[in-house]
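Supplementary Note 3. Input sequence used for the single-chain structure prediction.
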Amino acid sequence: MRRGFPLLMTGLALAMMADLAIAQEQGINLPKSIEAGSVFSVRCSGSGEGTVYIVGPGQVLRRDVQLGSTTSFPAGSLTHAGRYLAILSASGSSSDAGSNPVSSFDVVPASEPAKISFLARPSRLPVDIHDAITGAVYLFDTYQNLILTPMPVSFDLTNPSGAGQKRSVTTRDGAAWTAMDSSAHDGTDHFVASAGDVSSARAVVQVAGDACNLRMSVTPSDGKLVVATDPVRDCSGNAVPDGTIVTFTEAANGSKTTVDVPLKRGIAKVEMPEVQGAIFTVASGVSLGNQVRWEK
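The predicted structure, written as C-alpha cells, is reproduced below.
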C-alpha cells in the first residue's frame, strides 16, 4: 500500500494536469474543516460535467460531478485526520465560472472520545509509597484519530476497603497523566480512567512493605535453642508475605553462626546450638530486630 500510494498520486497528477488548464476558472467550495467520518458537501460552480479529486493522508476520493450543483459525500468517506486537497477537473465542454479549482481543508478528529488507551505502572508494588502509581491516557475517536482538543479525564484509584483517590486532569496534545500514592493496606486496587462516556480499568496489586518492629524469642528444646520470630508485619500492620528471608545470628565464644530462614505462615523459626552467654540477633532486609542474650 505504501509503495503504491506515491505511484497513485503521480498518476492522478498527470491525469488532472491535462484538464487543469480548462478548469482554471472553475470553482470548488467546501467547509474549512470537517469532522472525521461525518457527512459533507462540495459545491462546484460552472456548468457541464467535471470530476472532483480529494487527496489526503492515506485516502483518495474521486467523484464525477455536475457543475453548478452540490455533491454530498456519505458518512465515513473521510476518516483520517489531517490536511486534504480538493481539486476540480472540468471536461472540455464545460463553461467557465469561478476562480478556485483547488481548495484545501482539514479533517479533524471527532469531538467525543470512543476509546481510551490507558497505561498504569507498576502493576505490583509495596504499600504506602508517595506518588508511586502512575497513570497515562491517550484519547481516540471512532476512527483511531488522536483527539488533540483539551478534554477532562478522571482518574480513580480505589482499594478493596472502598477508600480511594481521585484526580481530574485536562489532556494536552491528546494525553493526560497523573501520579498517586499506594494505599496503606495490601490488596488489589482498581484503577480507572474515564473521559466522556468511555472508561478503561487496570488492576494494581499492592503488597506488604519491609518488615517493621521485628521481634524474636529464644526457648530451650532438647539441648538446643529454638529461635523464632513473632508474626512479621510491615509498618502499616500488613503481614509480610511467606518466603521473605529472615536472618538469625548467634555470636558466642568469638565466633558467629548465621542462618537464613524464609517466613512460613508469617513466622521464621530455626534451631541453633545452646551456648551459655550467646547473643542472638535477627534482621530482615534493612530492618533489625531485638537482641537476646541466652543465660540459663
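The mean pLDDT is 87. Residues 127 and 165 are 14 Å apart (CA to CA).
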